[in-house]
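User: Second chain of the day. Same drill as before.
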Amino acid sequence: MSEERTVRLAAAEALEIPAASGYRHAGYAASLSEFGAPHRLPLCQGWVLRRRIPGFDSWDAMGCYPLFACRDWSRLPLDLVEMETGLVSLTVVTDPFGEYDEAHLRRCFGDLVAPFKEHFIVDLGRSPDSFIQSHHRRNARKAFEYLRVERCEDALLFLDEWCDFYSNLMVRHKIRGLAAFSRAAFARQLGVPGIVAFRATREGRSVGMNLWYVQGDAAYYHLGAYSDDGYRFHASFALFRRALEDFADAGLHHLDLGAGAGAAGDGADGLSRFKRGWATGTRTAYLCGRIFDRPLYASLTQARGNADTVYFPAYRAGEFA
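Assistant: Same format as last time:
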């Protein structure tokens, strides 16, 4: 057994993740408090964000970005009944690995259940060389000629590096809205149970990082960001290859690589092509909405002049444009 694989297996054995981790954890919801007040759903053990509706003395809620995840989907309907008082509506994007079917979602969210995006997934029971595209394998081999990849035992130690990389990403891709995380948000996210960070270095200098969350028997790709040298030396390929190997060694069953860029999620963008090259298939994330107060919902929509929009909730149309 190689020394590198021995180190990886030792790290895998140390990967002890509590029942509440990643997107299910209170700490992750707290990291999004700039966008709303975290609200726990006690029966299903998930989190949403309560938000004041601008210009009105009314409130609604949305699932945490990028996914609403909970421990017991069967009990979500009871939590939603308890939420009815004081809220106009709720909107979530579902965890593709959640234990539900479309019929259950329709019982929970009677007003909107629609396929939103296809998430690229990895079955870790398969040999990586049987499904990773040859182009990706080649780029990973080239990247490893120049870069060293390590798993960060304490992600928070690299907060400043990560924030520099993410600032570079936001400039390159003009990131705005929910994905424009602040340094304070990242300080919380890098301390959430289940966080796993991989760091690529060249000649001792960091050039990029990937962040993942482990929950249950799956790991979810959260974010990746790089320096200019990281892009030049294809750090993303080395980081993804190392992550697939480490998570397989840790005994996880699946990876969720997330979806492509943009609201359409049509699979034609560069991010989709990159993720597709690592994936064994896809799973659907659903956009779901429920109206709790129909008269107020109609009144707010009319006041905004948004009656013809397909956006949900209609009174917030254009909020992340």
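The chain is about 35% helix and 25% strand.

User: Great, on to the next one.
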